[in-house]
Amino acid sequence: MGLMPIYPPRPDPFECAICGKQQPLQWCDMSQMDYPPICWTCEQYGWRLGPVTRKPDMRLAKQIAALSEALSEEASRKIYEEARHG
Q: pTM of this prediction?
């Protein structure tokens, strides 16, 4: 009999810090569980930051990268709007 991985309990509902959608939206595979503050989709596919992974350390690194990219994009948008509208 093979060993089964032990996953943390499902998180309470939260709003994704990047896309703003309420998570978790539906049941999903425990290996693709959303970890607050970012949903699985934004973490893994949002900016294509490396390979899709289920490894906890890599997921944390991808969350940090996704958050920093979202902040950078938001800052660039604000700078552009201020320069355009004065």
A: 0.69
